[in-house]
Specification:
Shape: elongated
Mean pLDDT: 81
Radius of gyration: 31 Å
Number of domains: 2
Strand content: 25-35%
Strand order of the largest sheet: 1-2-3-4-5
Number of strands: 5
Largest sheet: 5 strands, antiparallel
Number of helices: 2
């Protein structure tokens, strides 16, 4: 065997070993081993935050989608100023919004105070203000004793 042939064979062997080592290392990165002890049912994964209503923890996203138009109607300064009811037939949760007093300006926004009843046992007092998009944002919410 000539020296050139020996170097060529040795070079191929080294290259083969290097490729095998590289392949093993990369394969190790793609293997997932679940570790149940580190996984909790309460862990939140992903980038979408859980919805939290500005009024109550009872109000889920689907409930809020039904409550918000009722709140907007109750707070509308051109409206009748009467109590507006809402209900989610899926969850069974219902409530009312009652405007308190006249609309006023606050930080260059139109605002109005309201009372809200959520379900059978929760009441709140808050303020709704129109944001730049023309939607009502809820501020200064405080729980009230009901009954």
């Amino acid at each position: 065997m000539s020296i050139a042939s020996h170097i060529s064979t040795t070079g191929r062997s080294i290259a083969t070993i290097a490729l095998l080592m590289l392949g093993t290392g990369v394969a190790g990165c793609s293997t997932a081993i679940p570790l149940p002890a580190f996984i909790s049912k309460d862990d939140v994964t992903g980038s979408i935050a859980r919805f939290t209503s500005p009024l109550s923890e009872q109000i889920a996203l689907d409930d809020w989608r039904r409550a918000l138009p009722a709140l907007a109607q109750a707070l509308d300064p051109k409206g009748a100023g009467e109590t507006v009811a809402w209900k989610n037939p899926k969850s069974g949760l219902a409530g009312t919004f009652t405007p308190v007093g006249e609309a006023y300006r606050r930080d260059e926004r139109l605002c109005r105070a309201f009372l809200g009843e959520i379900g059978a046992d929760e009441a709140v007092r808050g303020t709704g203000c129109l944001d730049r998009r023309g939607e009502w944002a809820v501020l200064d919410v405080k729980p009230l004793k009901k009954g």
